[in-house]
Prior knowledge:
Blueprint: E1 5-9, H1 13-25, E2 29-33, H2 36-45, E3 50-54, H3 62-72, E4 77-82, H4 87-95, E5 100-103, H5 108-135, H6 149-161, E6 168-171, H7 178-187, E7 197-200, H8 206-214, E8 215-216, E9 228-229, H9 231-234, E10 238-243, H10 250-262, E11 264-265, E12 274-275, E13 278-284, H11 288-293, H12 299-305, E14 308-311, H13 322-333, E15 343-344, H14 346-354, H15 360-374, E16 379-380, H16 387-390, H17 416-430, H18 435-442, H19 446-456
Parallel strand pairs: 1-2, 1-3, 3-4, 4-5, 6-13, 6-14, 7-10, 10-13, 15-16
Antiparallel strand pairs: 8-9, 11-12
Amino acid sequence: MKQATVLVVEDNERERxxxxxxxxxxxxxxxxxxxxxxALELIALSQFDVVLTDxxxxxxxxxxxxxxxxxxxxxxxxxxxxxxxxxxxxxxAMKNGAFYYLTKPIDRETLVMTVSKAAELANLQQENMLLxxxxxxxxxxxxxxxxxxxxxxxxxxxxxVAPSNTTVLIEGExxxxxxxxxxxxxxxxxxxxxPFVAIxxxxxxxxxxxxxxxxxxxxxxxxxxxxxxxxxxxxxRSTLFLDEIADLGIGLQGKILRVLQEKEIRRVGGxxxxxxxxxxxxxxNRDLAQEVAEGRFRQDLYYRVNVVQIVLPPLRERRSDIxxxxxxxxxxxxxxxxxxxxEISREAMEALLDYSWPGNIRQLESAxxxxxxxxxGSTITLADLPNExxxxxxxxxRTDRGRxxxxxLPPTGINFENFERDLILQAMDRSDWVIAxxxxxxxxxYRTLQYRLExxxxxxxxxxxxxxxxxx
Length: 472
């Protein structure tokens, strides 16, 4: 049976350290958080069986943390720590789903017994959820929110591929949630008990990234005073996520190809290779096939990483998910207002729906966080949103006094497929049938436009002059 995982959330450092050490001595795997905000960050990275949280904390309270966890992580059990004067609040919290409450100072035996019982219940509920999902032919995908058909297709692929060791390539614009997808695959895989390891290949200079990935032996270069473990080695029996893999140099691409082929690595400065068991998930915001065609990415590595491809639609192509995501972020950041901000006005939501979101989900998250901070009442209004969202500004679209140049639907309606086909033809003609240029005009990805061209059977007209067959 796996060791139970516990997160201790307490702003009093001394009490947090004592409680955490007590549980570690009893065999629990324990992590600590000084605030509810930090707790949510840790839970997003690694789900816990039990969250042991103080009720009264600055910022987000233990009660607010409980409400967040009951919605997002229903199997996680929450035990509240309370002073005598807040027992009424603790009893109320139990009605909202807390497992139990403990009164400070905490008796060691009571603490261990309560956490053990909570962990047993968490384990039982996790097994029940897995069984129910299996019987229904589906698995819950952590961290993924949406109901748009294109996004549901992504979730379907994630569920299918997660239990295997297959290499996955995730393509999508910046901010579409590529790492969220990678983490979801890891959490639904048999490797979930091991740490998820990630690196952004574009954030580290070429001169350093090989050392980060493969580690080095002592004396490998000036300053290498001791052996260093690389990320491939750290991800042994787990998952390694290479974000922005297209930014790797050709030489390093060859070394990664060797790892995938031979399933072994050699540290920088080392003389011997040794086996590793790593599942690789790669991501890029570029069209990797185009990178291969233009000689910037190795074709053999492309075939190795592109065993299963997941293409994430940009937020502008899944507008029906904007209200879901906006309200999710509102709940996430509600503690910034002390729980005062509770909803988004209709006018503000219409602006969110009408904006094109070039920064995708990440930009929407930032906009809602800003709105919660600026909001003076209980409802986010249009005035609380960033200027570009209020004015519905879109790349390449001129606006006049805050109104966007939108197509107005005729009273009699339209045939949407004919309308879409006509717009695509106009964009292709204007860009001389260069797909990348037309995709930019239409505000969609290269692959999305390619799919639509195939869907409508659109091809570049043959403008060559036929040869005459008449005899002279």
